[in-house]
Amino acid sequence: MRGITLHSVVPVRATASEAAEQLTQLLFAETFDILQQVPRWTEICLHADGQTGWVDTKMIVPLTDEEFQSLPMADEEHPLARVAYPMAYAVSTVNGQTFPLTAGTTLPDYKDGTFSLLGATLRIDPAMVAEKPFVLSQEQLMNVVRYFLNIPYLWGGKNAMGMDCSGFVQVIFSLFGASLPRNASQQVEKGQLVKALSQAQAGDLAFFDHADLDPTRTNISHVGILLDSERIVHCSGRVKVERIDQQGIFSKEAADNEHPDGQYTHHLACIKRIQL
User: Fold this and answer.
1) How many Å apart are CA 238 and CA 80, to the nearest integer?
2) Distance CA 199, CA 185 (A)
3) How many C-beta neighbours within 10 Å does residue 113 have?
4) Pair 164, 235: CB distance under 8 Å
5) Confidence (pLDDT) at 77
6) Of 72, 74, 160, 258, which residue is the least packed, with the fewest Cβ within 10 Å?
7) Do residues 12 and 22 make contact, with C-beta atoms less than 8 angstroms apart?
8) Which residue, among 86, 84, 223, 236, has the nearest Cα to 154 in the 3D structure?
9) Cα three-residue angle 227-229-233, rounded to 5 degrees
10) Alpha carbon distance 161, 102 (integer Å)
11) Residue spans per domain, the chain
12) Looking at domain 2-69, what is its CATH homologous superfamily?
């Protein structure tokens, strides 16, 4: 069985409990397989990235095979339009209800400011929509990410009110036509290795571990997007631009009495280039 959410953002949790860790979030119109159900909770597997977890059953809608087959699916020749800015609003043409939609949300059957889903039609400001993926360049990347600056950090988040590091990367790359896994430890498996920071380009992904604190802790714990070989945009506390060198991220915000000019906060593990 499959399902869809018609809510703006739905938490996906590690277990069937409101108190459980948030692993990620479903965005409006995202579809998934339904794995099992218990009272009040449904375990799902997202079609977009394969993430599994538990959602509140009342936040989702089961789909018949016919309904699922009627949904437009993206391919290389026909990518789905997406909300391009941190927050936009869609309005139902039937009853005037308003839906806040966050960046990266797909808009099925979008054309000229309207899109349709399961027989309902909604209007949205065309200026808030990317009808096709952006072309990656330093200028375009900076034009996109500047609207996300200062979004606060939220574990498992991927919307305008809170994101984690890999959720931020996943949403931004969706606007450039790339489908990435949900977590940094999975994202690092993608792309081509860039041997040195001096060879990095805008849009390369930089991954970080804890090897500076403990040589045995080399598991990937953080990810950000390089703007060039000296600057990185990432979500740590909030989405921000900071300095990077071959050692890692140097943060002025980490200044203290011992380090009045700032200090290194993340140890650089590797750089990957994603083919778009």
Assistant:
1) 29
2) 23
3) 14
4) yes
5) 64
6) 258
7) yes
8) 236
9) 35
10) 9
11) 2-69, 76-130, 138-273
12) SH3 Domains (2.30.30.40)
